[in-house]
């Protein structure tokens, strides 16, 4: 049987005793590696050669990784600065430690997110506590990630796959996989060589010249090998969080809701005061709130401002009781990044947003909120909140729970758990929890309740309103299996995970 020229060259270059890689055979035959691969598969199908495949991983240090190999990992520098600033592990103000460490820009977030993960200490209420007796594995002088970066910077290999995977997630190395194919002659292949193989002229493609001349009628074309290697092309795609947000919007619109919109930076009046949140509440201090150094809001509905102040001081109704604590209109007019998108709900329920709010009504938003939280697997400084509320007569907790069960069922989640909770602005209130599909861990996915009279009466609403704030990122964790919110977006985002993650439809 006549063989193609590439097949004949491969048979003559291959060995029955020593396996040769495709690259070696390509060099010996002056053929392209893809041509050798195609010929090897064709010969394998006829039993003339054996093809063995192995997967090799290689790691290449990135520019960022090379910088940290020279200057030290951000979390290591933060730990050393915390040790120098503290006394026997006593908490130290975070700003002081960060200043002493010399960290700037994104390095600060990177250091904070890895500080506790490595056992260097803890972060609580804006203070760092460095553990002087950290486990040996967490010793900065023997940090396995730092050691791996140093080895890669010196063109040495690293055998610890777990460390390489972590560095790959952090974007400090690029781990690539390569399939290595080795070819060996079989007994039938040796026999074919001894009997003599004849090369047949074949064409691997149809050209315009062949069509014009009619040569294509007599030509013998090589078979198309669907198993041959092809370059992997990574095209652009919608981010999984954006896809999840769009899916949430589709579900809520299908449930009869209309979308709200409003400013990300807003007066504290709309963010907290209308919600009957006392101005001395811990969540309204700089520990949780991002205040902006800009002039205060001038335009607020004065009559509503007066009612809100009266509610904070005296409560509502004959049996009402306020907070009996200072209330400042100056503070209410100050601008901050919204800590929750309930500021939009306050604008809409008050009628200030210009929407029709005669009951019954349903509104929602899927927008960003900002909090000065401690970074961990389930918290970021900015996140997407699924805000929603329903205005109608005689609403109950059963209505609220039923709404959640229907909403999450659209994403294949049917085991929602509810836990009673306290909010200054809703009563009754409860938190929502879901089970992570990979770890089995129960994680909080939202907060909800029915607005108190101190909120509704002040806004001029004379019927029930049930409301909630759900976490989009945590919904994405439950549906995609992501175990760390930072795998979804941020400096540690896992690009390979994002390329393959699917939004539930």
TrEMBL record:
Cofactor requirements of the protein: Mg(2+)
Localization, UniProt: Cytoplasm
Annotated Gene Ontology cellular component terms: cytoplasm
Gene3D superfamilies tied to this protein: 1.10.10.2320, 1.10.10.2330, 3.30.1370.240, Bira Bifunctional Protein, Domain 2
Cofactor note: Binds 2 magnesium ions per tetramer.
Subunit and interaction comment: Tetramer of two alpha and two beta subunits.
Sequence similarity: Belongs to the class-II aminoacyl-tRNA synthetase family. Phe-tRNA synthetase alpha subunit type 2 subfamily.
Descriptive protein name: Phenylalanine--tRNA ligase alpha subunit
Gene designation per UniProt: pheS
């Amino acid at each position: 049987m006549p063989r193609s020229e590439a097949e004949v060259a491969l048979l003559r270059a291959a060995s029955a005793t020593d396996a040769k890689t495709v690259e070696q055979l390509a060099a010996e035959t002056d053929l392209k590696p893809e041509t050798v691969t195609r010929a090897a598969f064709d010969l394998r199908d006829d039993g003339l050669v054996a093809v063995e495949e192995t997967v090799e991983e290689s790691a290449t240090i990135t520019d960022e990784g090379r910088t940290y190999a020279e200057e030290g990992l951000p979390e290591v520098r933060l730990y050393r600065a915390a040790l120098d600033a503290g006394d026997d592990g006593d908490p130290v103000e975070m700003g002081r430690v960060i200043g002493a460490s010399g960290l700037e820009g994104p390095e600060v977030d990177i250091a904070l997110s890895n500080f506790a993960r490595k056992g260097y200490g803890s972060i609580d209420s804006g203070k760092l506590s460095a553990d002087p007796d950290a486990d040996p594995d967490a010793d900065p002088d023997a940090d396995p990630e730092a050691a791996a970066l140093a080895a890669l910077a010196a063109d040495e290999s690293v055998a610890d796959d777990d460390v390489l995977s972590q560095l790959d997630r952090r974007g400090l190395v690029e781990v690539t996989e390569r399939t290595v194919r080795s070819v060996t002659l079989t007994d039938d292949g040796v026999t074919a060589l001894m009997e003599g193989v004849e090369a047949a002229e074949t064409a691997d493609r149809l050209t315009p010249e062949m069509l014009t001349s009619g040569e294509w009628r007599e030509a013998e074309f090589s078979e198309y090998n669907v198993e041959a290697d092809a370059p992997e092309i990574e095209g652009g795609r919608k981010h999984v969080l954006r896809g999840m947000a769009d899916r949430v919007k589709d579900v809520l619109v299908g449930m009869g809701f209309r979308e709200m919109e409003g400013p990300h930076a807003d007066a504290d009046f709309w963010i907290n005061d209308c919600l009957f949140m006392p101005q001395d509440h811990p969540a309204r201090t700089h520990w949780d709130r991002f205040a902006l150094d800009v002039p205060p809001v001038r335009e607020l509905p004065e009559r509503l401002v007066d009612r809100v102040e009266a509610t904070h001081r005296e409560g509502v109704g004959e049996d009402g009781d306020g907070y009996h604590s200072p209330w400042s209109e100056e503070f209410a007019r100050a601008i901050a990044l919204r800590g929750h998108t309930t500021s939009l709900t306050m604008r809409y329920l008050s009628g200030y947003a210009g929407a029709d709010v005669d009951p019954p009504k349903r509104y929602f938003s899927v927008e960003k909120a900002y909090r000065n939280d401690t970074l961990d697997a389930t918290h970021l400084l900015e996140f997407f909140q699924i805000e929603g509320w329903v205005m109608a007569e005689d609403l109950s907790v059963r209505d609220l729970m039923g709404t959640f069960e229907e909403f999450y069922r659209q994403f294949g989640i049917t085991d929602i758990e509810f836990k009673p909770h306290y909010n200054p602005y809703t009563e009754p209130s409860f938190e929502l929890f879901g089970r992570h599909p990979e770890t089995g861990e129960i994680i909080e996915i939202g907060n909800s309740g029915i607005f108190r009279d101190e909120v509704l009466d002040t806004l001029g609403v004379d019927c029930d309103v049930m409301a909630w704030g759900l976490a989009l990122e945590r919904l994405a964790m439950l549906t995609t299996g992501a175990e760390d919110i930072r795998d979804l977006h941020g400096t540690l985002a896992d690009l390979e995970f994002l390329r393959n993650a699917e939004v539930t439809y």
